[in-house]
Write a structure and sequence with these properties.
Elements (H helix, E strand, L loop, with lengths): L5 H14 L6 E5 L7 H8 L4 E6 L2 H14 L4 E5 L7 H10 L6 E7 L8 H9 L2 E12 L10 H11 L9 H6 E9 L4 E8 L4
Parallel strand pairs: 1-2, 1-4, 2-3, 4-5
Antiparallel strand pairs: 5-7, 6-7
């Protein structure tokens, strides 16, 4: 895929498979960047669905907009915001004002939580934008395992250059706070994928 190493595209594909969005749903793409998840999400949700891409970088969002316009996707809403700092209520209003729903059916964070300093707050803010029992997916990185362990220095270097924390295991939030969790891994365990249905606190 243009703009990304194939090794990381594999994680995106597995993450969206695990999230399993369906036709007509609204999906939050947390830290959407240039929109690399958009083609795979569009295959699942179709024209009746909605992608809400949230990213703090205006430059990234400009590229995401170009990607959507080039494909003729009219169901993409882009919001510039820092997931750690945003207010879910006002963000929901912004999404509604752009033609979307105040609450989303699913959220996916691919290689983005590891870039956020207070990722726990980002998680809380994400869940504030979701419907009850929505599905949440996380794709992120750790040191390779088993026979692939020799690739650890390279993996750590790639993550350091990208500003990612390879040690935080952000996907554990899905395991701790969701039910019916789907687990997958790829590239010698370097890519970890989790998705599940959020537990209802009430």
């Amino acid at each position: 895929m243009s703009g990304e190493y194939p090794v990381y595209h594999a994680g995106r594909a597995l993450g969206i498979d695990a999230l399993a969005p369906t036709a007509g749903q609204q999906v939050l793409d947390i830290g959407c960047g240039t929109g690399l998840n958009f083609p795979l999400l569009q295959e699942r949700i179709g024209a009746a669905g909605t992608i809400v891409g949230i990213d703090r970088s205006a430059g990234m969002l400009r590229q995401a907009l170009r990607r959507a316009e080039a494909r003729g996707w009219q169901n993409v809403i882009l919001i510039q915001a820092d997931m750690v700092l945003l207010d879910p209520r006002s963000t929901a209003a912004r999404i509604q004002a752009s033609g979307g729903s105040a609450v989303s059916d699913a959220a996916l964070a691919t290689y983005s939580l590891s870039l956020m300093g207070d990722w726990q707050q980002a998680w809380t803010n994400t869940t504030g934008l979701l419907a009850t029992h929505a599905r949440v997916g996380v794709v992120d990185m750790q040191d390779p395992e088993g026979r692939a362990r020799w690739l650890t220095p390279l993996a750590r270097l790639a993550c350091a250059l990208g500003g990612s924390d390879i040690t935080a295991a952000h996907w554990r939030a899905v395991e701790e706070r969701c039910v019916d969790v789907v687990r997958a891994s790829a590239r010698g365990g370097h890519l970890q994928i989790r998705a599940g249905k959020m537990m209802h606190d009430g």
